[in-house]
Amino acid sequence: MNTLQEFLEHCRQHDAPDSSWSPPLQALWHAEKGNWERAHTLCQQGDLPDGAWVHANLHREEGDLSNARYWYHRAGKPECNLDIAAERHDIISRLLPG
């Protein structure tokens, strides 16, 4: 799977993310499905910059902007002003292999 559209189609057709994906990408799958808690747990695995980026997006979605700022800083990313879903889709596109 190399495109956002393929990722979103996987979300529509499956009950779980691909187990070979990184925890941040699995977290994004759960976020796309509306499972904030599972996404939040997964994005914290491994203390990686990609996970911190996903974590920031999740806290924006939650409305906790000060916490989101902290996670953007940890990820080395600027704060985002896009719609939450648009930012999530951008992150997915950047984290997909290929």
Summarize the structure.
The chain is mostly helical and 98 residues long.
Q: Explain this structure to me?
A:
With 98 residues, this protein is mostly helical. The chain has a domain at 42-98. The protein has helices spanning 4-13, 23-32, 36-43, 49-62, 65-75, 84-95. Helix 3 (36-43) packs antiparallel against helix 4 (49-62) and helix 4 packs antiparallel against helix 6. The longest helix has 14 residues, at 49-62. The protein is globular, with a radius of gyration of 12 Å. It starts with a helix and ends with a helix. The model has no long low-confidence stretch (mean pLDDT 95).
Characteristics:
mainly alpha
Present the secondary structure layout:
Elements: H1 4-13, H2 23-32, H3 36-43, H4 49-62, H5 65-75, H6 84-95
Helix pairs in contact: 2-3, 2-4, 2-6, 3-4, 4-5, 4-6
Oligomeric state, counting identical vs distinct chains: single chain
Helix content: 55-70%
Q: Specify the number of helices.
A: 6
Q: What distance lies between the first and last C-alpha atoms, to the nearest angstrom? A: 8 Å
Strand content: under 5%
How do the helices and strands follow one another from N- to C-terminus?
HHHHHH
- The coarse overall form would be globular
